[in-house]
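Revision sheet: structure tokens.
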Amino acid sequence: MGLTLTLTDAELPASPAFIEFLHATLTGEAYHIGSWHQQDEENLASNEGRFEGIQQKAQVVVTHPKGKEYLLRSYRFFKELLTGNVQTLRDIARFRFFFIIGIPRTGGTYLAKQLFRAGGINYTHVQNALAHDGFPHLAYLSFKRQGNIHTSALLQLAEYITMVEIFFGEHGRLAYRGGIIVPKKFTKAVYYFDLIRELFGTNAEYLITLRHPLSVCKSILDKSGGMPAGGKFAVRSIIERWTLEDWLHWGVSEEKVRQMNYVECFLGYWRRFHFQMAMTGIPSMPTARIVPYGAEAMTDAIKKLYSEFGLRMEPETFKSAEPPKFSGAEESAAQKAVEDVASFWSNLGIEFPTGALASKL
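Predicted:
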């Protein structure tokens, strides 16, 4: 056939976070860091206003010879992902990805920081899109805002790989199992893990973070301004937005979700997130490790990794939280959610560490 299909950057523009990264790389300006690495002060608000002036930055990128080269490489990666001909992507085998996968507020940021330290990289200088959740944006299929979220996910993943090549090609020093260590907190991997497995497979380590749902809920409330009026669910932060989107995906109207008890609403998200994690096979990956939340478990996990890396260094102090206080009914509902997930995992032949979550820290 002589059919030619043409897609341009008008239909599939480069992501603002990618343009922001390239602009900083080319000009020598500081990367946008945000507060991703601040465990106590991490901001859960939206990125409203972050990308003001992005058109001017894009102009700098597209008129710079290296900027053009980086953009073309990302689109070349995108084409390979779109067609399934991923030979061009084989170069990523020189990296050893450490994907930290867990629902937010489960200690993944701490693990990511310690892994950057292992590689001799100051994590306070790493762009948030490169290190943390939110980018690339993987999610259930939808056509929101006149776009295919799976197509945009492929483009953002191609951009992320390009960012890895640029940043870790220059700054990556520590090798493990034949590849330069690349840490990435990757909550959204659960929504498109087939793609992650196809691309990275056992060329990546998967650190699964787990925490009692009431402790996660309390942490989100503390960062989002406390319990909303009347105990009803409200959207004030990114994580609360993800909770709402989860319910919408399951056919519940936004009006109904906003009338739900806050804890009940979050428990539904927590339960389905871990159902999805098990169904995608993440815990069954040969290179997967489960890391329960808490100072002892998390520092022990990092110490073991440091030992495997051949490093003589100690992890930073893990800042533990106070146990949450909820009503008896909410305690019972949370226990039911934990039991549901444990049973679901068990039916798939996977052991869920119920005992490690019992402390509710």
